Amino acid sequence: MVAAVSQWPRVLTPSRLVQIIRREKDPSAALRLLDTAPLRYPSYRHNSLVYSAALDSLLSAEPLPVSAISSLLSRLSLRESCPSPDPLFARAITALSGDPPTALALFVRVLPRSNSPSWSCSFHALLRLLLSRGYLTLALGIVARCAGRREVQFGYHTLNLLLDALCRAGRPDAALQAFSSFKDVCCHPDRDTYRILMRGLCDAGRLDDAYHLLLSMLWRISQKGCDADVVVYRTLIEALHRDGRIADAEDILTRVLLKGLKSPKRRRTFCGPVLSGLNAEEVKQVIDEALVVRGVKSLASYKALLGDLYAEGRLVDAQQMFDEMIKSGFRPTVSIFEDKIGALCREGKADEAANVLSKEMIENGCVPSVRAYNLVMDRLCKEGQSTRAVEYLSRMERQLACVPQKETFTILIDGLCGERQYPEAAQILEKMLRRRYLPTRAVFGNVIQGLCLIGRIFEAVLWLEEMISHGKIPEAEIWTSLTSQVCSVDGAVETLILDVLEHHTVSD
């Protein structure tokens, strides 16, 4: 079948074909354009941008055309004119999260046939996929297979992924072994590495190993100060106190604070905090205050500790630390406000989260981010205030450098459909398509079924046609909702339904 294009250009370039492919709604039609172009223009050759546009079109289809994706990447790997397809393979592997064998086959069989000088993006995408699906042994095998290959470069991201998976699986001994062996491949740990390993050792009750790990970190304090590492120290100190090893907890806290003091006079007069006789909550407050307030103050230490406090749901302690940070002259960052809004939303305090977004961030010189808006709108929708959440969408559109994302529209559509405001959900869906965000099959289905429920069959059929034009195959429930209404609609709508079915049956 020849691809249908309104008008082929006189001279075709890869950038021009990319534009044509991206305007095509149907992924199968986009793939036909890829096949047709070299036949119409014998001197034309695809480049990696063309394959990237075709892959994006295939990845937007539901259900995912696995065979078509594998075929496209196989063709790409055999073309010498398209170097460095590693990011394309990484995107495909990430999208194939529901089909690990196919993702593994792409990395093991197809990628080695390409001329890509680097496989690092694909390797990390596959590693994240396998670990997220629980294939720990297979992931370790892939790491061992790729160790030493010049196409794959290990980094602290690789180490952090492995350590997190091993600690979650209850294998701290293997995590310690991996931590030691990665130094042989010149992979140096970062703060998250120590934090993951420290938490895993403490959760497993291996406090002596955690104690020695922290002692090996003291050089970091001498060179860099406490800063964001305070979250690592507090993990061990709190674990030692819970285990009754109060003297060890006080010793570690005193060592950390002494290392962070640069002034000899302050070091001579320093007196370490006392933890004996305090309950768990009092100990946490003393540790937090000692590490951040009595130590070397910095924005990084405040930011790291506030992130932990918000994640633990300790809103009162976090607010006290937040006020102390402002009093010390540090300006809070956008990420701190995002953590605060997220914590308030998890506690069901939508009004307070909205106040932080609308007033507190502005008063402290921070511009609200897309993530902050999404968190507030999601909480409002879950509390049945979707109409109020839509107002924040209008505010986002008026704000500079704050463009609503696909997630933003999806949150609003799901919220409005949950409150049976289907016409308003259809309006948001229309805005979403105008911004060239492709909704999922579930989003289309919710709107179509909702319009059927309130008797707006004509609009439902139009959205059905729009859904099919984007290559989204309707689920059985959508057809059930439509057919149940056919007998009660007028002849014009029934004719339109039949036309849609006939048109897309013939095109298939």
Automatic annotation (TrEMBL):
Pfam families: PPR, PPR_2. It comes from the Eukaryota. The keyword Repeat applies. Keywords: Repeat. InterPro entries: PPR_rpt (IPR002885). The keyword Ribonucleoprotein does not apply. PPR repeats lie at residues 155-189, 190-220, 229-263, 298-332, 333-368, 369-399, 405-439, 440-474. Belongs to the PPR family. P subfamily. This is Pentatricopeptide repeat-containing protein.
